[in-house]
Amino acid sequence: MLEVLCKSQIVNLTFGYTPGFILQARLLGRITMRAVITTVLDTSAGKAWENVQLRKTMLYICEGLLSFKTHNLPERFVIGSEAQCKIWFFNILPGWEHNWRISNIDQNRMIIDSEEHGGLVKRWHHLIKIETLDNEQCTYIDDIDIEAGLATPLVWLWANVFYRYRHWRWKKLIKLEFSID
Is the torsion defined by CA of 74, 79, 85, 88 positive or negative? Predict the structure, then answer.
């Protein structure tokens, strides 16, 4: 079942993107969808947390599906970090100008919160969370709220594919022992 937030109403759809959903989106004028992708990583939460805050990690886990052309992406993310970048799909298809800002980092709870937008995407609220399972494993969570007008279901679908790919790349990065310099 797909949960969709339309303004302040929650609509549960069992068959996905239907003509009634399109009509409702037009009447309400705003659609938000949420994607939550979770995986278990074979590394400590501390090591995952240290690496998730680094530009080189973000570039590595996105590489192949999405690349960024920018000069102002910080080496290490901190609260207030901002970047504007041109995104490229599969390194060959130009996308749009994408803007993001780190709105919160909670070192104790291992959470990074960003607000993003650009192109089709009016709002992309991304929360990354790492939870300790034991000394050698952690849970890595990407929680994304998406608002992209009538394109929201398609952007939501892309987000699900993209973040599952990122999680696969995380596992590959761990096998490389975070050695990507």
Answer: positive
d(CA 14, CA 128): 27
Q: What is the model's pTM?
A: 0.81
The domain that holds 97 is classified in CATH as 3.30.530.20
For 114-124, letters b (16+ CB in 10 Å) and e give bbbbbebbbeb
Which element (helix H / strand E) includes 31? none
**Model pLDDT for residues 73-110, shown as the tens digit of each residue:** 888 999 999 989 888 888 889 888 899 999 999 999 99
Residue span of the structural domain in which 125 resides:
31-175
Dihedral, CA atoms, 156, 160, 166, 172, nearest 10 degrees? -170
DSSP string of 46-103, one letter each residue: HHHHHHHTBHHHHHHHHTTTEEEE-S---SB--TT-EEEEEEEETTTEEEEEEEEEEE
Q: Which of 88, 100, 99, 96 is nearest to 119 (CA)?
A: 96
Does 112 reside within a domain?
A: yes
Kindly report the number of other CB atoms within 10 A of residue 60's CB atom: 19
Does residue 70 register a pLDDT over 80? no
